[in-house]
Amino acid sequence: MREEFAERMIDTLQARAPGFRSTIVRRTVRTPQDMVQELRWPAAHPMSLAARAVLTWRRRSGS
Predict the structure, then answer these.
(1) Does the chain have fewer CB atoms within 10 Å around its N or its C terminus?
(2) CA distance 27 to 6
(3) What is the pLDDT of residue 60?
(4) CA distances (Å), origin 49, targets 25, 52, 61
(5) How far is Cα 32 from Cα 41, in angstroms, rounded to an integer?
(6) Which helix (H) or strand (E) holds 28?
(7) Is residue 42 domain-resident?
(8) Does the reported pTM lie above 0.70?
(9) Number of C-beta neighbours around residue 52 at 10 A
(10) Which of 30, 31, 34, 27 is nearest to 10 (CA)?
(11) CB contact set of 18 (below 8 Å; sequence gap of 6+)
(12) Within a domain: residue 41?
């Protein structure tokens, strides 16, 4: 489920910002429960969904 959710998020961004997918260097997908356990965020984040993708991307040269 996590990976499918991340792919849908990236697809949505890609549709609105062509080329976005190619700028992603690494991604980590965390659920609210993961955030509570790993990041010690009480109740995770108030704006969290069933899963949240954290994306790291690089700026294209010349952008």
Answers:
(1) C
(2) 9
(3) 57
(4) 23, 6, 33
(5) 9
(6) strand 24-30
(7) yes
(8) no
(9) 20
(10) 27
(11) none
(12) yes
The reply to whether 6 falls in a domain is yes
Give mean pLDDT, residues 1-23.
93
Q: Is the pLDDT of residue 52 over 50?
A: no
Of 38, 34, 41, nearest to 6 by C-alpha is 34
Task: Read off the pLDDT of residues 13-47 as tens digits, 9 standing for 90 and up.
Answer: 999 999 999 999 998 888 778 878 887 766 665 55
Domain of residue 16 covers 2-57
Nearest partner of 6 among 24, 19, 16, 17, judged by Cα: 24
Query: To which residue do tokens 């984040």 refer?
Result: 45
Look at residue 39 in the predicted model and tell me its pLDDT: 74
Residue 62 lies in a domain: no
